[in-house]
Amino acid sequence: MIEPAARARQPPAIDWRRPVLALALGAASCAPALRPPVETGKRPPDLVEIVSLDPTIRLDVRYATANNFVGRPVYKEGRAFLQRPAAEALVRAHRALREKGYGVVVFDGYRPWRVTKLFWNVTPEDKHEFVADPRTGSRHNRGCAVDLSLYDLATGREVEMPSGYDEMTERAYPDYQGGTEEAREHRAVLRAAMEAEGFTVYASEWWHYDYKDWALYPVLDVPFSALVRTRRATP
Ligand SMILES: [Zn+2]
Prior knowledge:
binds zinc ion, Muramoyl-pentapeptide Carboxypeptidase, domain 2, 5 helices, about 20% helix, alpha+beta, 7 strands
């Protein structure tokens, strides 16, 4: 998802993303050069490819496709990484969900800082509350945020949730009470499993979870291609 800012609570009245994109792209070329924040005293990064820990975790990396709010791929590879403790916690949540008939499907994990900067540049200024400021970076940049949903083990299909991923409306709020009871139940099942493993849901997005140790890790700008490719283990 476009990385949320802490104050993002009010959805836009209209879908602002596509109509204004061209304008925003034009404005971006005038923006001053930004660099990742310089931080000290952080843990050494240990990004791990999520599926290397459990290949039954599914991936649906929208940012490696044109099916995202930018309208074109922003990742060259459909891969997902987290810092090792966060990845291991996610695996535990995924395995606990099995008993309820579900698995997790990951939309995004670690996100290189340059992609956060791109999101900032293509988003109009009056909507910047919905994206992370590259001057501070985001929890995705630290490898400690994951966007995800559930899939049904019996059908293999993603379950219904109260909103789609990447939907910037009140339906995305984790406390939204509309939609079907089944969708709200799916959301609650995901949340309980994630909270049991140290993740906190973001107040504006049912799919975005932050791992408790996010502040210990630095903002990173390492492309996926530079990260170790780990062969998928057999299930
Ligand atoms: Zn997110």
